[in-house]
């Protein structure tokens, strides 16, 4: 186990370096000059050039990237071009909000998705199965931003039982978490149903029923446990998708999380902040994938970690 963890952590390094390189190159293609944005429209060329020198923007691209990469290994993500504050400090302020939103959303994804999938698998091709799968299909098809706006209109504008935007109480969590978790729940429901149906048809399930075991025990102890491997994979991927989805959801509900910070930084061409935000999100995504691999081993002892 320890050797596996060390191996995976070492493999993270080139992946994360690749992420920083891709983001750096993409940001260089974005129109606009950060020095001009900071100096203002009426600034002189001398002032703009002085700002470029202070920010190191007059250096060749490979030197800019090498300096940034060197600072990362020192634990320094740089200083924001927008407000001249350390990038890491800004991220640490916003990150807990995004993580809280993502965790509540993934909880909704797991609970609703697995419950719906199990119900469908127990009674395949019944009215309940067709109804659940129809709802799941609709959930996958609806764009999250439209779904969020509809929830806001119904529960905040019309019924006035939930706040429109912000992040001040548990009530503010409900609509964004549902918006972010609903699509994932639909995907998990379909995967759970498919995996459960495959397991339920196995010989050892028929043997368990022939022995007279209660259906609840057969489903929970035998069928569900063996059907969880592909479901865990999907949940892990959905958590990564949730981190990306927070960008849009936080913008819709005016939540000052990491996703919204990255969007604002892109508009200002704040390269250090964008790279720092994407790097932190990538680290979380890689760690979640590592956790998924460990869960494989927990739920199925026959799987070897290598």
UniProtKB/TrEMBL annotation:
Cross-referenced InterPro entries: BPD_transp_1_N, MetI-like, MetI-like_sf, Opp2B
**The ABC transmembrane type-1 domain covers which part of the protein?**
95-296
- In what way does this protein cross or attach to the membrane? Multi-pass membrane protein
Q: What is its main location?
A: membrane
Q: Write down the species.
A: Sutcliffiella horikoshii
Assembly, in brief, is: The complex is composed of two ATP-binding proteins (NikD and NikE), two transmembrane proteins (NikB and NikC) and a solute-binding protein (NikA).
Q: Where are the transmembrane segments?
A: 12-30, 101-122, 134-157, 169-189, 227-253, 273-296
Pfam families, per database record: BPD_transp_1, BPD_transp_1_N
Arranged from A to Z, the UniProt key words for this protein are: Cell membrane, Ion transport, Membrane, Nickel, Nickel transport, Transmembrane, Transmembrane helix, Transport
Family to which this protein belongs: Belongs to the binding-protein-dependent transport system permease family. OppBC subfamily.
Protein name according to UniProt: Nickel import system permease protein NikB
State the superkingdom. Answer: Bacteria
Q: Which PANTHER family match?
A: DIPEPTIDE TRANSPORT SYSTEM PERMEASE PROTEIN DPPB-RELATED
Q: Where in the cell is it found?
A: Cell membrane
């Amino acid at each position: 186990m320890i050797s596996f963890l060390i191996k995976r952590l070492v493999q993270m390094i080139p992946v994360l370096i690749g992420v920083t390189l891709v983001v750096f190159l993409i940001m260089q293609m974005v129109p606009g000059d950060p020095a001009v944005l900071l100096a203002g429209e009426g600034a002189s060329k001398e002032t703009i050039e002085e700002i470029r020198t202070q920010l190191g923007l007059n250096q060749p691209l490979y030197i800019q990237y090498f300096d940034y990469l060197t600072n990362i290994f020192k634990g320094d993500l740089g200083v924001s071009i927008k407000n001249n504050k350390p990038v890491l400090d800004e991220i640490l302020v916003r990150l807990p909000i995004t993580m809280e939103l993502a965790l509540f959303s993934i909880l909704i994804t797991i609970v609703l998705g697995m419950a719906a999938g199990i119900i469908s698998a127990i009674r395949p091709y019944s009215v309940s199965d067709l109804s659940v799968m129809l709802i799941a299909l609709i959930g996958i098809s609806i764009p999250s931003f439209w779904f969020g706006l509809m929830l806001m209109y119904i529960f905040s504008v019309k019924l006035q039982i939930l706040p429109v935007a912000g992040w001040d109480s548990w009530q503010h969590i409900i609509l964004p978490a549902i918006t972010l978790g609903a699509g994932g729940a639909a995907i998990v429901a379909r995967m759970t149903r498919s995996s459960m149906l495959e397991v339920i048809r196995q010989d050892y399930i028929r043997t368990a029923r022939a022995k007279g075991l209660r259906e609840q025990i057969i489903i929970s102890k035998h069928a569900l446990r063996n059907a969880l491997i592909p479901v865990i994979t999907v949940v892990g991927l959905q958590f990564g998708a949730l981190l990306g989805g927070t960008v849009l959801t936080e913008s819709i509900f005016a939540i000052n999380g990491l996703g919204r910070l990255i969007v604002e930084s892109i508009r200002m061409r704040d390269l250090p902040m964008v790279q720092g935000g994407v790097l932190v999100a990538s680290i979380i995504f890689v760690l979640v994938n590592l956790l998924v691999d460990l869960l494989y081993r927990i739920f199925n002892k026959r799987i070897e970690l290598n």
